[in-house]
Amino acid sequence: MKSKGVLISFLVLVTFLGFLPIEKASASVSSNSVNEVEDRIDTSKNYYIVPADLPTRGLSTHPSPRYFFPSLVVSSLSNTVEEPSGTPMKLLFSEEKKKYHIGMLYLFPVKGLIDHFITRSGNIHWIEQYAADWIITPVEGGYTLQSEGGYLNYEDIEVTNGPITRAYLGKEKVVWKLVPVL
User: Fold this and answer.
1) SS3 of 28-90
2) Which domain of life does this protein belong to (predicted)?
């Protein structure tokens, strides 16, 4: 009978401890965050950059009818969390600036596959000088990607061929994940 009382007391204690509030990870950034990210991101790998709330759809490009260069979009196709749809991206770290350039291979007419970079305006350009300098900050659930024009964000829009999910620079912080290309 005494052992039942001890067992019940133990179960009550375990149950009570299970309902204690757990402190969530803070989205605040330490002063050393650039070094932390630099240490964590393996720049020798390519990554799919995916929104945390759309983990099967990565950044990609879309031909722009108005501009010579393609637009940056979130892929409309879904795949798997481990291997999302989208274009593999390369993160190039600048020791001098302590920031990243985000590049990708793009099939360019006549020239074939060449490097393209995400620009300050959120478009794609083949000249790295126009590439945005990105600060990649670790937050709960992934990273925020910020350039001088704002944070990398996305929205659904209607175009002549139907709806697409456009990537753009905005004020709202959106959490992105970096999924290594297998």
Assistant:
1) CCCCCHHHHHHHHCCCCCEEEEEECCCCCECEEEECCCCCCCCEEEECCCCCCCCCCECCCEE
2) Bacteria
Q: Report the amino acid identity of residue 148.
A: E
Nearest Cα to 141, choosing from 46, 24, 19, 21?
A: 24
The CATH number of whichever domain residue 170 belongs to comes to: 2.80.10.50
The list of the chain residues with pLDDT below 50 reads 3-4, 6-31
Burial letters for 88-115: b for 16+ Cβ neighbours within 10 Å, e otherwise? bbbbebeeeeebbbbbbebeeeeeeeeb
20-63: per-residue pLDDT in tens?
A: 332 222 334 444 555 555 557 899 999 999 999 999 999 887 76
Report the domain count for the chain: 1
Any domain includes 147: yes
Q: Which of 100, 147, 106, 144 is nearest to 124 (CA)?
A: 106
Residue 62 lies in domain: 33-180
C-alpha–C-alpha distance, residues 119 and 79, integer Å: 27
Domain-embedded: residue 24: no
Burial call 164-180: b when 16+ CB within 10 Å, e when fewer: bbbbbbeeeebbbbbbe
